[in-house]
Amino acid sequence: MARWKATIAYDGSGFSGWQEQPGKRTVQGELEKGLTKLHKGENKKVFASGRTDADVHARGQVVHFDSSLQIPSARWPRAFDSVLPRDMQMVSVEHVNDHFHARYDAEAKEYRYLLHVGSTRDLFQRHYVHHVFAHAFDHEAVQRSLQPLVGTHDFSAFCANNTNVASKVRTLNAVSYMQVGEGEWCFRFNGNGFLYNMARIIVGTAIDIGMRRLDAEDMNRILHARDRRQAGMTAPGRGLYLWNVQYGP
Amino acid sequence: MARWKATIAYDGSGFSGWQEQPGKRTVQGELEKGLTKLHKGENKKVFASGRTDADVHARGQVVHFDSSLQIPSARWPRAFDSVLPRDMQMVSVEHVNDHFHARYDAEAKEYRYLLHVGSTRDLFQRHYVHHVFAHAFDHEAVQRSLQPLVGTHDFSAFCANNTNVASKVRTLNAVSYMQVGEGEWCFRFNGNGFLYNMARIIVGTAIDIGMRRLDAEDMNRILHARDRRQAGMTAPGRGLYLWNVQYGP
């Protein structure tokens, strides 16, 4: 039996999120179904770096699983190709030691959020970008507002209510907001951990700043108020991508 | 009663093509359903510039319809927004004279075909680009091969078998092939009319040339042979876009 670390991409629009739920099509469910098929019916489990919600995409989700199949690393992606649905893709697979854990060993994660701002939405991007109808949008204010978030803070203001965790202190290593296309902008969040809906609530608040419903300085004020009610709406899942997960050497 | 010319976009991946078919979700079916809803149940028909097949997209399909509703041009798109599914979009609507016909008055059409060439496919583009697995691809040969197609020719070689039309002579006003992104290439075909599968068979033949299964010069030879069997495969619908339809002044 060997342990494998697998990096997978998926299009979140066809899934009810990561976690297995009876009667729902989930990423975990489809992945385990495929893996079980490769193992000729032997029930297989996968463990992810963390869950993603409905509509949320991944370019570099990481999971681990154990297998007694003798498949070289480079051949695994093709093996998965034959058993996974078309909206999931195995990016790479590598052999790791038996103690590796996709969730507990993760040191940092990067999330990206794609925003399109303008007076017309692009039909073909409807599952992949969050469109904000606006003629005027203060991108510079958004950029400025994000800087106070870098560092170690209690992020209670940007955490979904009724989230039960011991501590809401997290560290954001880097946050940026830049133009990536015509009317298209990208938020990047690199952090040691993310609270439930944290990236999406920060983006929702940033949209209020871009629309001038809030000032750039309000982001910092809201952070320190630690009050979810002062922050903006939770931005929709469709713009969010789990971009990669970083592990130690 | 007034006649309206409407320009619509749709994502072909969720439709069984344009034409209404019992039990199938089609573009025409959804559009007429929406229009009928706007007319409080009065049965409405739309007439398109031409059909598109399953998986084929449109950025600028044109249709006409008659209506007694008193809606100004600029308000029509929003009216449609409330009754059309999310994978269709009304781009613009304008009032035309009662003799306008979306099909018979069309003077030219532009089709585009998006190709991605490389060793890995992009999961998020799977419905929108045709991916060709290749390490080497002769783009320059493809470019060269297309030039003899410009002009007025009998395009029998690039027409699906069992197509029953009086004449297979058509005029291509312009054909081009250029890079539009990393590994992404776009064919453009502007012509006065297109035979069934014509753009897709030309693209399929061009792919054979890019893969060096055929020479650039074979395109011209195949054109003049007028024999469908000598041309390449019909490229998949997912890469094809009806880009616009041109009408006289």
From TrEMBL, chains A, B:
GO biological process, one term: tRNA pseudouridine synthesis
Gene3D superfamilies (UniProt xref): Pseudouridine synthase I, catalytic domain, C-terminal subdomain (3.30.70.660), Pseudouridine synthase I, catalytic domain, N-terminal subdomain (3.30.70.580)
Root EC class: isomerase
Top-level taxonomic group: Bacteria
Domain Pseudouridine synthase I TruA alpha/beta: 6-105, 147-247
CDD domains for this protein: PseudoU_synth_EcTruA
This protein's UniProt keywords: Isomerase, tRNA processing
EC number(s) from the headed UniProt entry: 5.4.99.12
Residues reported to bind substrate: 111
Position of the signal peptide: none
Catalytic residue list: 53 (nucleophile)
Single GO MF descriptor: tRNA pseudouridine(38-40) synthase activity
Stored SUPFAM superfamilies: Pseudouridine synthase
Catalytic activity: uridine(38/39/40) in tRNA = pseudouridine(38/39/40) in tRNA
UniProt-listed PANTHER family: PSEUDOURIDYLATE SYNTHASE, TRNA PSEUDOURIDINE SYNTHASE-LIKE 1
Assembly and oligomerization: Homodimer.
Purpose of the protein: Formation of pseudouridine at positions 38, 39 and 40 in the anticodon stem and loop of transfer RNAs.
HAMAP family: TruA
Entries under NCBIfam families matching the protein: hisT_truA (TIGR00071)
Record family assignment: Belongs to the tRNA pseudouridine synthase TruA family.
Protein name: tRNA pseudouridine synthase A
Gene name as annotated: truA
